[in-house]
Amino acid sequence: MAQPASIVTQPEGGSASHGETVTLNVVAAGTEPISYQWYHGDELVDGATESTLLMADLEAEDSGTYHVVVSNRAGTETSDTVTLTVEIQGPETRPILTVVGITAEGLQLSVTGDAATEYELQFSTDLKSWSTLANVVTDDTGKAVLTDAASAEALAKETWIVATGFYRAVLAVGDGGE
Predict the structure, then answer these.
(1) Which one, 59, 62, 104, 172, has least CB within 10 Å?
(2) Beta partners for 40?
(3) CA angle 26, 31, 34 (to 5 degrees)
(4) How crowded is the C-beta side of 170, counted as CA atoms within 13 Å?
(5) d(CA 105, CA 86)
(6) How wide is the angle at C-alpha 157 spanned by C-alphas 149 and 120, nearest 5°?
(7) For residue range 79-130, what is the model confidence (pLDDT) as tens digits?
């Protein structure tokens, strides 16, 4: 008499960092052959038909819930749902924006942050809406200097006063620190 497929050891969730590899395992018993199908949320994971689900080079979209359905000719069982959290690491250092000087070419700003990290230099007149002036990439020491040429038009050349405005440096969108 065939024994129905049953789960002996449930998979375990957890957390991992972006780019890492994670393995989810299930142990099943019952009359062979036993088939396996893994799901991410309610979506079938294509090609995931083994007792082990190996996920390499994790991305943010890999976060979520997972479960596996085990079955044989005598029965089917669904595992507990587990959660995988993929942690995306931001920069280690908040960028520091410093005014280097005012020249005829415009306002010179220095961004200091993590080495080889891309930042957006942004400008606002009201601290509500921001426009990107440029993207800068810090060198191996974590510094980059940018001259805002557009500010040259707003400079009162006689007094070297910059028109009212605000600057900030933020991590560039899509930069994963790689």
Answers:
(1) 104
(2) 43, 66
(3) 45
(4) 11
(5) 45
(6) 25
(7) 999 999 998 776 566 777 777 776 667 677 777 877 777 888 788 888 888 8
